[in-house]
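Weekly puzzle thread! Below is a chain. First person to post its structure in token form gets bragging rights.
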Amino acid sequence: MDRGMNKVIIIKRRTRLEELKRRYNTVEQARFYVEHLGADFNDYIVENEIYYMALERVRFLAEKYARVQEIDRDYIPNMIFGDKDIVVAVGQDGLVANVMKYLDGQPLIGVNPDVKRWDGKLLPFEAGDMDRILPAVIKNVFNEKQITMGKAETTDGQILYAVNDFFVGINNHTSARYHICYNGVTENQSSSGVIISTGLGMTGWHSSVMAEFRGMAKAFNLGEVPDPQYSWDSGMLIFQVREPYPSRFTEAGLVYGNVTPDDTLTFVSNMAENGVVFSDGILEDTIDFNAGMELRVNVAERIGRLVV
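Winning reply:
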């Protein structure tokens, strides 16, 4: 195996200890803050040590088979991935999702750095597994799960992808105002925002909204509300409007629906400021969605490829 012909990009994240150090400048000041609140600072230290041992193990094994580049998750939006790159995310499920939406067909290996701490449904491997899985990926003889992604595109050409879900709304606690058009039916709405989920994301924010629906149905003796589940590769999105407010000027009829490539789901913002579209819970990765902006959401043309 010609090591020089292969390239592995390892994506890492900051640990809680590193985040505290950034905020309080030194480990000692971070310790004082945490212990002053009665928490166990040693847990932060142990987590950090285990994470970097796993990261070092992944790096060591990857270097046996490929050229290795290591970058922090903060730089992913500006990273240009090669068609033949193999990407390894060492962290939690959220890191895998955040990385995948910037890939275009490259295989992604999710590594759980601390199996006693994280469940990791997107993290099927541990650090030591790199010695067997990486050669298989290089030879293109591996199993994968394909994951449907969502795509949000504005009329001025801004594009955002999602592995779990989109949020369309406002970045504070006031009501979002917009026009929604679903397959030719249009409403003027005021709500807490709209969630558009992938099949993978239906266990996240979608599940939370559905729990509210089921609770309300039970309170009014309306029977059971089904909670549909779709496979990760379903080729479909699901939208839900949160807390729509019906009034003289706003409606609340379009609150739920499926979106396939043949469907049309668009929004036009009626918000003077603070309107946003973000994906996978990352508020920093945002499209401004203010007065007159039109947004189209549908199934993405690209798919995620998670090595399993």
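Puzzle host: Confirmed. Bonus trivia for everyone else. The CA atoms of residues 278 and 286 lie 5 Å apart.
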